Description:
With about 280 residues, this protein is an alpha/beta fold.
Amino acid sequence: MARTYVPDPDTITLRANGLDLACLSWGEGPLVVLVHGFPDTARTWDLVGPRIAARGFRVLAPYTRGIAPSEAPADGDYRSDTLGRDIVGLIGAAGEESAIVVGHDFGASAAYSAAGLAPAKVRKLVTVAIPHPASIKPTLGKLWSVRHFVTHRLPGAVRRFAARDFAEIRVLYERWSPGFAWPDAEFEAAKNSYSAPGCAQAALDYYKFITPTPPEGHRARLPMPSLVVGGHSDGAMRAADFEGSKSRFTGPVDVVMVPGGHFLHREHPEEFLAVLLPFLDG
Length: 282
């Protein structure tokens, strides 16, 4: 039986880069923007956002473009630099000149783009589970771990992704965070969003814009204080991949490995927060 989409009742809506973006919001103070990846929604930050807010920050976690209940672009543009401009636009829509930006997975790629395109807008940068894309050296193992980059672009991809109540979401989580016992409830927010009309197609359309040529935002060297966080048991990346990110920064950057796989902020939130919060406070 097909799911019935239920809009997240806890969001506010801000107009950014020409789109209405639904955002979870916590706290007051200097702005921190949390950007989710795939196959995720803004709810991936449920364990993190309130803890950041408790330290005296205002936290916004947008549902990225095309991910319900946020608006989908009419032109189908899901390029990393476009996502980066969404972040920059969101900072302005929140009435701020700059923000700390934290991104995971596709959100990390978008955060690198935002920092490269508009460094004055990104006061500090935190990326989670993704080394700087321009520093990643392809290997057969990495290519196999991201084989969905190809399969999600083939005919029938949306139908296969949605089959058996979006069973592929668990497959991807277990591939990228091997050995972690994911409860079924972990996937409910994503399944709900992706059941909205057109949302599963939008989520997979992100993959159409991954190319070997780095976008403009990924070609820039980044001057802001930065933190790159990786998981010891990530199913695709190793510590050396994250260390390689340092070559893309001109400002101070720390690379920290913590317990967990690709979704380390969900697997071991306390260990993740122990690294994140001092950086935000600093």
